[in-house]
Design brief:
This protein is mostly helical. The protein has a domain of about 90 residues: Tetratricopeptide repeat domain (Serine Threonine Protein Phosphatase 5, Tetratricopeptide repeat), CATH 1.25.40.10. Helices cover about 80% and strands about 0% of the residues. It contains 17 helices and no strands. The longest helix is centred in the N-terminal third of the chain and has 17 residues.
Length: about 300
């Protein structure tokens, strides 16, 4: 075995992985492992390729486990395997791996960030916030940790702190639509429609096909009695997805509030019935308008 050949294959695999050429990466790591079956890093990187390129969590777990068998102090392997356990519903396994990763490497950003996500998922907001705060201490310029901590604060009902963290996330990375989305939801809870609308608009600018952003902005426009803009947003949802039952149904409700909009409302609810013939709400609203108008 020539260690130079093994390292050359490993580096070539890394290059493929970096370019998103996952099949080639896996094949190249295979060759490196054939030459050196105890090369822990090759198993680790092949696990990454199985996860990132194939979403093959089981094979990724096998490779991360092999890397850990060969190097029991491989903190990143524990951290990455935790993510696979999380995706396959093994929360206890994920937490055990993250605890071990942090024990081995107290400055492992990913381990603290991922454990924070795990805690937030199970509703342990305080532990989540503590872990996100530690991740921020390790890497103060990582927008994702601020965004995740902001979400945890929002889930606790502390929307002022949530907004402050999302402000920071946006300052670091103004191109991530989810930072604006999270901040908008906090503004909605605080009943600040103008700021919520501004953030939903930013989400839409970054992702013009984000249907939920149009819906949420339409709701805020309705709160301000700006029915024309609300109708325009529901119409855009329908343009994106012509079978979006909720968009037709909600646009019909807005038309009902507009003078002379009854016929358009009925047309929208009839569109709902064409998609879902047994939709009880659409039929109920049509009957209500016709009864009130004496039709």
């Amino acid at each position: 075995m020539d260690s130079n050949d093994v390292n050359a294959l490993y580096n070539s695999g890394d290059a493929y992985l970096e370019k998103g050429e996952y099949d080639q990466a896996i094949a190249t790591y295979d060759q490196a492992i054939q030459l050196d079956s105890k090369y822990a890093k090759a198993y680790f990187k092949r696990g990454k390729a199985y996860y990132m390129g194939k979403k093959d969590y089981r094979r990724a777990i096998d490779d991360y486990s092999k890397a850990i068998e060969l190097d029991p102090n491989y903190a990143d392997a524990y951290s990455d395997r935790s993510l696979m356990y999380f995706f396959t519903g093994n929360g206890n396994g994920a937490l055990t791996d993250l605890n071990r990763a942090i024990q081995l490497d107290p400055n492992n950003y990913n381990a603290f960030y991922r454990r924070g996500i795990l805690f937030d998922t199970v509703g342990d907001r305080d532990r989540a916030i503590a872990d996100f705060s530690q991740a921020i201490k390790i890497d103060p310029n990582n927008a994702e940790a601020y965004s995740a901590r902001g979400t945890a604060y929002s889930n606790k009902g502390d929307h002022d702190r949530a907004i402050a963290d999302l402000d920071k996330a946006i300052q670091i990375n103004p191109k991530n639509k989810l930072h604006y989305w999270g901040r908008a939801l906090s503004y909605v809870t605080k009943r600040d429609s103008d700021r919520a609308i501004a953030d939903f608009s930013q989400v839409i600018q970054l992702d013009p096909d984000f249907e939920q952003a149009y819906r949420s902005r339409a709701i805020e426009y309705c709160m301000k009695r700006d029915y024309d803009r609300a109708i325009a947003d529901y119409s855009q949802m329908i343009q994106i997805n012509p079978r979006n039952v909720d968009a037709y149904f909600e646009r019909g409700k807005v038309y009902m509030r507009v003078t002379g909009g009854d016929d358009k409302a009925i047309a929208d609810w009839e569109a709902v019935l064409k998609i879902e013939p047994n939709n009880p709400n659409a039929r109920k609203y049509i009957d209500m308008i016709r009864q009130n108008s004496g039709r």
